[in-house]
Design brief:
The chain is of the alpha+beta class. The chain folds into 2 domains: 78 residues; 70 residues, no CATH class. It has 6 helices and 9 strands; from the N terminus they run βββββββαββααααα. The strands form 2 sheets. Strands 1-2-3-7-5-4 form a 6-stranded antiparallel β-barrel. It has a two-stranded antiparallel sheet with strand order 8-9. Helix 2 runs antiparallel to helix 3 and helix 3 runs antiparallel to helix 4.
């Protein structure tokens, strides 16, 4: 399924310190895609990748994200939600009030004191942004006369979280039907956005 994507060999370190070596992984900022579901991947495992400069990055598996495949074109796979280990301590989200001082932590852009917030935040996550980036790069590199598809990808990206996303998604699916052998791996990643 991910044969056209740049995969890396990584090691999975289990809680009991056993190591599963040379696992093919496609890394995005917050997701590790693993096609081999015979691997026992569990929440709390560490995925370790070697960088070209000799250093290593370690990622904590927050949710193994097993995803059931669709027919022969999209097999079962993991879409594991990961967090870089050295950023785990930095990303504690929340706020506290001490002596009328408000301390905000994390990715928040509002504070409501003694009021009800009826607004809706619509934003695209890093993971969603990475999916659209990979989709655009795949279309650019593998499909000729791709401007219409690239425009449809941009339309989808701009409508994430809005009621118009389903319309843009359906239009993209209809126009890309002749390229499903290339674009099929993206469908399970895009379809959850229909209910965002």
């Amino acid at each position: 399924m991910f044969k056209n994507f740049p995969k890396e060999k990584a090691n999975i370190i289990k809680a009991n310190k056993t190591i599963i070596e040379n696992v093919e992984v496609l890394f995005t900022p917050n997701v590790a895609l693993i096609q081999d579901v015979s691997i026992l991947l569990e929440d709390g495992d560490i995925i370790e990748r070697n960088l070209p400069n000799g250093l290593k990055d370690s990622y904590l598996v927050l949710d193994r994200g097993f995803t059931k495949g669709i027919g022969r074109s999209i097999p079962d796979h993991y879409q594991a939600k990961i967090q870089k280990q050295n950023s785990v301590k930095k990303s504690i989200a929340g706020n506290s009030v001490t002596n009328n001082i408000i301390n905000n932590y994390g990715n928040m852009d509002k504070v409501n004191l003694n009021s009800i917030d009826n607004s809706t935040n619509i934003s695209i996550t890093e993971n969603e942004n990475a999916i659209f980036h990979f989709l655009e790069e795949t279309i650019k590199s593998q499909i000729e006369n791709n401007s219409e598809l690239l425009n449809l990808v941009m339309d989808m990206k701009e409508n994430v979280g809005k009621s118009t996303f389903a319309e843009k998604y359906n239009e993209f699916i209809q126009k890309s039907v002749n390229y499903m052998n290339i674009l099929a791996p993206f469908i399970p990643m895009l379809s959850p956005l229909l209910v965002k």
